[in-house]
């Protein structure tokens, strides 16, 4: 008991609670609109989904890393080269454990999936992603009052319903905690009764894996590789596991189930990654909305872990399916 | 409209029960195995993660249904 | 396909993501995996080589040590032989010198004996002569010239021979 009543502990608890309450009052954060399809961002006249931009960001990060790590390779590695070699060697060892002789052949796919997914997931946690973007007029009847900071606009936590011409200002006021900057003028924006514009934020960047196109693309590539290497290793005999006429009715049914599960794999691949990262994103939004200060910190740690684990699962499952595909199916019986 | 949200919530809520139990059983088995044979920990851990991924797939189908109910 | 729209699935963006992945795969393969894996292979090779070289060097050291020890043993054996031979030679020389000395001594003794014998003989002969002379003179003095000198002499000689035989 005395340990808990220690003045230091009491002061710390009081401070934390004070910070949480002050953060809630002083810097409320708006809850961003949550939608599944990626938002479109105008880039050079095209409307590009922000998740695709995020993927490009991850690509550039990886290529930069590759360039810096291999710029002047030394026999005795140091710094970045050492780190990258450690990562690659570790993953190569894992690939070898599962794939054996084919490790060299499959390693680039597996490693690229892992790196791309993980870097894209981790970029989501960088401040600015999901919170810096273009401000657009609200289109689903809900928006936030805008405030001007210098040449930029920011969303306030003041939420208003927009029903055609009717507007109802919300109860809450004040500046937003996270800075939500955007260019974009006020023309064409609905306004509150006192003339302040109302808008919503469309972020420039949004985690790639919160877009089904990204996860489905990876899932399709993975399953295509599985089929390709299956056929390459076993010839037409590979399809024997799907159309099984030798095993009687039972065998045929197993073949049908095998076929269905092959498509189910695509769905579980894409939705596993999508679901985890999308849910993580929503979790972070809501934590920041409910308790803006301190509370989201542990969830950032959790999301980092989830981002890594999902990338790992995607890569290792692909590898496991590949290893399974090149083994003749009869050997299982 | 309200029923749609209710059904989405129920879909993922009920759908998560089974995979939750499954993942629990998987991790229990893996941890017991690691406790009994700590040298095999890395191999067991990798297989455990793969197994969890498969169990989780069921929850993902529920998630898909919930998402379809909510957004479609 | 219309049902997929609310989920955000769009053929064009899907294709864009696939193309993006393929391009990234090719680039990373070229600029990351190949150099790093080559480097790892190279390093593995290098380590294997240096381990082998170390093993060879160790082997060489062992061999040269063995050769050195063999050399040392041979030198020691040779030294031993040389000493042995020297000792033998000295022994032999000693024997020779001793034998020679013994021989010389023997010769000296022999010569001395010979001389002594000769002297004695000489002295005997002289003595005999003188005795003959003396006895002849004595006999002459005693009996005059009763007997011819030749008969005397013969007599004395006879007597002396008898004496000589009995002595």
How many domains, in number, for the residues of chain B?
Answer: 1
Q: What profile does the largest beta sheet of chain B have?
A: none
CATH class of chain B: Mainly Alpha
Broad structural category of chain B: mainly alpha
Number of helices of chain A: 7
How many separate domains of chain A?
2
Low-confidence stretches of chain A: 165-185
Structural class of chain A: alpha+beta
SSE topology string of chain A: HEEHHHEEEEEEHHH
Structure explained in plain terms:
The complex is a heterotrimer of chains A (333), B (72) and C (167). Chain A is α+β, with helices and mostly antiparallel strands. In chain A, 53% of the residues lie in helices and 14% in strands. In chain A, strands 4-8-5-6-7 form a 5-stranded antiparallel sheet, with no helix packed on it. In chain A, strands 1-2 form a two-stranded antiparallel sheet. In chain A, a hairpin with a 2-residue loop joins strand 5 and strand 6. Chain A is globular and about 75 Å long. Chain B has a single domain (2-71), classed as Up-down Bundle (F1FO ATP Synthase). In chain B, 90% of the residues lie in helices and 0% in strands. Chain B has helices at residues 2-15, 17-36, 41-71. Chain B is mainly α and 72 residues long. The N and C termini of chain B lie close together (12 Å). Chain B is elongated, with a radius of gyration of 16 Å. Chain C has one domain. Chain C contains 2 helices and no strands. Chain B binds chain C through residues 67-68, 71-72, and chain C through 3, 6-7.
How is the secondary structure organized here?
The complex is a heterotrimer of chains A (333), B (72) and C (167).
Chain A: H1 7-26, E1 40-43, E2 46-49, H2 50-69, H3 79-99, H4 103-123, E3 127-130, E4 133-136, E5 142-149, E6 152-163, E7 166-168, E8 198-203, H5 212-234, H6 248-290, H7 296-325
Antiparallel strand pairs in A: 1-2, 4-8, 5-6, 5-8, 6-7
Helix pairs in contact in A: 2-3, 2-4, 3-4, 4-7, 5-6, 5-7, 6-7
Chain B: H1 2-15, H2 17-36, H3 41-71
Chain C: H1 11-143, H2 149-166
Structure keywords:
heterotrimer, A: 333 residues, 7 helices, 8 strands, 53% helix, C: 167 residues, mainly alpha
Structure, briefly:
The complex is a heterotrimer of chains A (333), B (72) and C (167). With 333 residues, chain A is an alpha+beta fold. In chain A, 53% of the residues lie in helices and 14% in strands.
